Amino acid sequence: MRGVIVPLVTPFNEDYSIDVPALEEHIEFLQTVGVHGIFINATTGEFTSLSVEERKFLAEKGRELVNASFYLVGTASSNTSEVVELTKHAQDIGADYAVIAPPYYCPLNDEALFRHYSMVAERTDIPIILYNIPSCANALSVSLIKRLTLEYSNIAGVKETIDSINHIRDVILDVKGERNDFRVFTGLDQHFLNTLALGGDGGIMACANFAPEVHLALWKAFQEKRFEDAFEYARRLAKLSRVYDLASSFGSAIKLAMSLRGFSIRPVLRPPYLMDGENVKEGIRKLLAEVLG
Length: 293
Description:
single chain; TIM Barrel; DapA-like; Schiff_base-form_aldolases_AS; lyase; 2-dehydro-3-deoxy-phosphogluconate aldolase activity; schiff base
């Protein structure tokens, strides 16, 4: 698995129920434009606002719909037993990868985090993508990632949602350097080209929900060694990533941008998240016009 992977939004109706037709439409769109992977129950998908039953339902529905891309399912929780349960479910339905962010809320040291991931890796066979997102959960150090990767062959890669090119560099050199089948993805649109240039494998980036054509164009230009074109697309993604600075949450930024670009997904977030108002929407409108025309 390499390239552009999309962490899906979860579409909701006005009553906060899951909007299945909108989900079906969005997955069909993403596969039609040619993304390389689709990731359900992601941070962008508000997985912490979903019940276990809803997460399983979405995982099963996504497995029915995704047939032209790699299929990833998020199985994170602060409860290790729940992570094992969700990861086994992802394995049973035929997902290609489980993506597991560290436990959140309670601070944990590297030994506790190693035990958490070890219990999941030892009880399942599905390839696991570690998900390092220190702004929301316990951070995964390079040494911990390396230890897990060398200990467990089913730990297959990492999504790095961290604003540190030095950290990504060290993961690529120290971990991928030891196990060259290990996949390294950025979770930040503005670090897509940096990650590829350092020897990474792609990106799992939320803006690809509404502008996958830019991400795919950068990927194609880089693979074809058209570096001036790749630089131009990278500059566009760097500007586009400012959408996160304009909104109060990932979900609000992405769903507002999607509504402005004509997607049928409603600008509805489940509590405790709130959609931003007209001022933020207008700022996002101006940004999209500047970058995408």
